[in-house]
Amino acid sequence: MRYLVDFQQQKWQRFARYACYLLLAIGVGCAGTTSNVQLSPVKTEQLADILDTLQARYDLTGSLKITKMMVTIEEGEQREELRESLWYKKSENGGELLHIQALGALNEPRGIAIANQDKNQFLLVLVNEQKAYLGALSDGVLREIFGVDLRVSDVLGAIFANPFLDRHAEKPLSVESSGAKFIITRPGVQEGNVDTIILFMRENEPQVTEWSIHDKNRVLQQRTAFSDYREVGGILRPHTVEIERPLEQTRVVVKIAKVQLNVEIKDSKFKVEPFLNEDIEIIPLSELSK
Asked: 0.85 exceeded by the pTM?
């Protein structure tokens, strides 16, 4: 029985680590993005049209609701499956609101992650452990809890399959193409890192398929792969996201079965108070940095 309890705790701890660093997915691994195809430079206006289309998909998405999502986590030789639900909304104040739940056998919440930009608030609840991490929403919040470097904009970029959301106007190192395939490289956020983004044009619609980050020694740190693109409410979205961090021997696969865009989601969905009761131990994020 004790083994079963420990196993369940480890399972939801893994959710804790990835439901934020999942917040729908960052990073996948593989051996880089080399190609034997002859590439040619891309005209500036051609790249601008692609980025404008990706931006329009984000601008036209006021809300996002995923009620059927299966997440498979492989960590070394261990493998777990979690069922999750996700709600996203742009508030009237212009903030980004996000709520993710990992579900138990009876669809009861076992792990909850809420990011509320309007209130500058981040919450992570582990129901089985009766613990909650609560504090200000910032680019360093996940590093404080788990040592995972992940920015808020990275999370949004992964949700919308758009690595350019916060860097739309930035001049890349290079942009090359071969037929429908485009390869874009740019400086990474961390000094010395390089981002490589691969996309394909299909029926005049860009589809980002890979987003990888190499360090200054050209070692792959993380890679995100997007596939199974389908139109939802007139907007093209991927329904499979693969996440791999080779140095951590970690791979995550997210498969989305049901997604709705621009549906009504009440602001109460993004309030943290309903998940904080007298039985929950609240750990302020400010204490973790001391």
From this structure: no
In 62-76, which positions are buried (b, 16+ CB within 10 angstroms) versus exposed (e)?
Answer: ebbbbeebebebebe
173-176: long-range contacts, CB 8 A cutoff, minimum separation 24: 174/41, 175/41, 175/42, 175/47, 176/39, 176/40, 176/41, 176/42
End-to-end CA distance of the chain: 36
Both tokens of 262, joined, read: 């621009």
Nearest to residue 22, comparing CAs of 245, 210, 246, 187?
Answer: 245
Phi-psi region of 268 (alpha: psi -120 to 50; beta: other; left: phi over 0): alpha
Q: Break the chain into its structural domains and give their ranges.
A: 23-288
Q: Could you read off the pLDDT of 228-266 as tens digits, one per residue?
A: 999 999 999 999 988 888 888 888 888 999 899 999 999
Could you say which of 2.50.20.10, 2.60.120.330, 2.40.50.460, 2.30.30.100 is the CATH number of the domain covering 23-288?
2.50.20.10
Structure tokens, 230: 């389908």
User: Do the strands 220-232 and 78-90 form a parallel or antiparallel pair, or are they unpaired?
Assistant: unpaired
pLDDT tens digits along 149-179? 555 556 677 778 888 887 767 778 888 888 8
**Rounded to whole angstroms, how far apart are CA atoms 198 and 225?**
9
CA–CA dist 231, 184 (Å, integer): 24
